[in-house]
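$ run holo --ligand "5-amino-5-deoxy-1-O-phosphono-D-mannitol" --emit tokens
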Amino acid sequence: MCGIIGYIGDKKTSDILIDGLKRLEYRGYDSCGIAVINGVGGLYLKRVSGRVDALDALAASDPVKGARAGIGHTRWATHGAPSEDNAHPHTDCSGSVVVVHNGIIENYLELKEILLKAGHKFKSETDTEVIVHLLEEKLKNLDVAEKNARQAMLEPVFFEAVRRTIADLKGAFALAAAWAKCPAILLAARQHSPLVAGLGEGENFIASDVSAFLKHTKRVVFLNDGEIAAVKKEGVTFFDFKGRKLERESIVIQWDSTMAEKGGYKHFMLKEIHEQPEAVEDTLRGRLLPISGELLEREINLPLELIKKFKRLQVIACGTAYHAGLVARYVFENFGMPTEVDFASEFSDRAKITDKDTLVIAISQSGETADTLHASREAKVSGAKVLAITNTVGSTLTREADFVLYTHCGPEIGVASTKAFMGQLAAVYLLGVHFATARKKLALAEARTYAEELLKLPRLAEELFLSEKSIAAMAGACAGSEHFLFIARHINFPIALEGALKIKEISYVHAEGYAAGEMKHGPIAIIDKGMPVLAVATTSKAISLMAGNIEEAKARGARVIAIVDEDSRKLIKAADYIQVPKTMELLSPMLNVIPLQLFAYYVALAKKCDIDKPRNLAKSVTVR
Ligand code: M6R
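-- output --
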């Protein structure tokens, strides 16, 4: 998830772009840049590793005058570390074409190979750079028209080159391109990543979201997938990918800029809960072998020999990432791989049984959690290899680990982790299937079945949001309770823990997650009349035992809210139900966690808590 902006008009372009990037920083902030067309043929390019303030200072020290068009980008790294070279905009070999991009180009390695053979020189490690060289190539092929053309005639050439470029791209993109030889037009295109055009008076904009230009105009057109916008000072024209002109109606946005950053949601947490289908899609995108559904080796670079050889797995993580680790244990053990899971803070103080036969998996959204870093360093000293699952390219964990598998969730702003957890689960399943096939514990046909089910999850998660209103009502009705209990069994037990953690951290009430089978061994004593018990009871091998545990809670006066699917609903008797779409038991945590996140959110909302910045907590815990 990166932020892009483009401007064309009479104002000082660099200022408009930089101001827009500051407002888009919540989408990514590891590096940024602007490219401004400075008269015909002139290109002013400034990029920095770091935040937009640094870019602002750099641009102020070397200002550009008279420019009337440009594009800018603030990055959240997916391919290539955060650095100036990897910062956007990217330029072609001639230095006259520039591109900014948000998304993931799935076939970039194939395209890069072709472009390298054609003599293109690459300056970055990004997937984006293939777009600009491809565009250069397409422009070359349209050269005849260019040579004969006057300025205005170049615009159709540029348009056609962009159109042909995007026809070759697979994956997700929102992109904007400028060509110094053709300064009166910017071209932008959307496929699975957001893009919106802002329509002003004698000036126009294109951006990842409206917050980037809201102070200049509130009249917008949201692009649909498969659309191109030709942005000129006089107006914006829309086309489909075949080049046919489209009629698009503009709308007037009522949001202020803070609301716009949150996509109209009241809190980042709610927005991020809703971004989970996209987080799963992005974490899977372009990483599975089409035939078997296995993880592509290049995504992890963990030698097959090592995968075949290790005797045990040890997961280390903190908080929500630890819960992803607990799910991982069920997944890996399901495929016959002995797995231990520890809080990173506890692992550090225990006698080590990790050694060269252990593969340690460190899970961390930020890649900067002090306990996780310390534990993974200790694991390395014991001779183990460390594989990091993280959302943050260039983080300390990625530099210190032997291998890295990225989740591609974009920045998570809400302190309560939601979409990062989802990305971690997706990564865990990818790894589980990859290891199991490499170790001959899973036939390729079975691997494919898992992959197919995984790929369905984003759509199923979208379906689940249809129940949001009724979840909000149940949460509102329970918001006065001082104690909440979350119960589940087996692979959903970590989801009970996660549900309880979410409610604790944003509502400041007592909540416990328990393995349902353990209830009779003590905790059932705390249940009294009206206490909310959230029971994860989707179809599983243990469903009849779970039904029994629900009866036991009800018998003590609990108000049970059961998370069920179509089939298990018939077996469970509860006060309230939240029905989730059905998937394989092994994958069910990815759907079951969503209603619990929403429930926690709406309890906190009813209690008027500071949801995105809960008391006493920090997004990243960098001290031990
Ligand atoms: O960045 P990390 O994934 O290493 O962070 C780990 C925990 O601090 C984090 O998950 C924390 O528990 C969240 N606030 C949970 O919502």
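-- notes --
The CA atoms of residues 313 and 325 lie 11 Å apart.
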